[in-house]
């Protein structure tokens, strides 16, 4: 099947769910965006969809404590997962949303790819690595986006991306690494290309 050319600007908010029991039916294809609370996940989703406030952005990391669902086309969804890391929220709240993140990743059959976002200045922290190893174990493809790439000069950016690609080999799975900047809008084409591939795959559940 040829890769679909999806219109990401058509993305519409569907629901915010506290856990997987409140998500839409587990059919079709979902691609999840995950990352530390300050990785720029909401900004990346807004840049991809050409919408300023589809995903909420906040100066306070960790505001996204629910699983947010956006629909592109019938059965094709983008999922904004709760940020992980050191957001200044009560421990009980943090544990609850870490639990819902874990449940989604382990139990959602329609999940067919994960975009892991990490600040280009602090790539592959322990929690990022855990998530990628989990995805590889589940034979899920991963697109690593090194966000805020405009913060580095071109030479340093290229060097960091090359080092990250070298590091990604150790995961022993389908892990692609790209630089991304919501501010300068670079890397968007690579994200669209990869997502089009994932949404175009035919999955035989027979």
TrEMBL record:
Q: Name one GO biological process term.
A: division septum assembly
Give the matching InterPro entries.
Answer: G_ENGB_dom, GTP-bd, GTP-bd_ribosome_bio_YsxC, P-loop_NTPase
Write down the required cofactor(s): Mg(2+)
- Extract the SUPFAM superfamilies matched here: P-loop containing nucleoside triphosphate hydrolases
Which Gene3D superfamilies does this UniProt record tie to the protein? Answer: P-loop containing nucleotide triphosphate hydrolases
* Ranges where the EngB-type G domain occurs: 27-201
Which top-level group of life is the source organism from? Bacteria
The GO terms describing molecular function are: GTP binding; metal ion binding
Give the UniProt family note: Belongs to the TRAFAC class TrmE-Era-EngA-EngB-Septin-like GTPase superfamily. EngB GTPase family.
Describe its function: Necessary for normal cell division and for the maintenance of normal septation.
Q: Could you tell me which NCBIfam families the record lists for this protein? A: GTPase_YsxC
Q: What's the protein called, per UniProt?
A: Probable GTP-binding protein EngB
């Amino acid at each position: 099947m040829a890769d679909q050319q999806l219109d990401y600007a058509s993305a519409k908010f569907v629901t915010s769910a506290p856990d997987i029991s409140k998500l839409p039916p587990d059919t079709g294809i979902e691609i999840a965006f995950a990352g530390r609370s300050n990785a720029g996940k909401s900004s990346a989703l807004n840049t991809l969809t050409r919408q300023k406030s589809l995903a909420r952005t906040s100066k306070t990391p960790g505001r996204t404590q629910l699983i947010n669902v956006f629909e592109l086309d019938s059965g094709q969804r983008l999922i904004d997962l709760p940020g992980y890391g050191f957001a200044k929220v009560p421990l009980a709240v943090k544990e609850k949303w870490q639990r819902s993140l874990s449940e989604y990743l382990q139990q959602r059959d329609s999940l067919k790819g994960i975009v892991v976002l990490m600040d280009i200045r602090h790539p592959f922290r322990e929690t990022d690595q855990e998530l990628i190893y989990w995805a590889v174990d589940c034979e899920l493809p991963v697109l690593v986006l090194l966000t805020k790439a405009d913060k580095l000069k071109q030479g340093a950016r290229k060097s960091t991306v090359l080092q990250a690609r070298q590091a990604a080999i150790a995961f022993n799975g389908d892990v692609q690494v790209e630089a991304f900047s919501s501010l300068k809008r670079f890397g968007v084409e690579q994200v669209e290309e990869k997502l089009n591939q994932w949404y175009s795959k035919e999955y035989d559940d027979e």
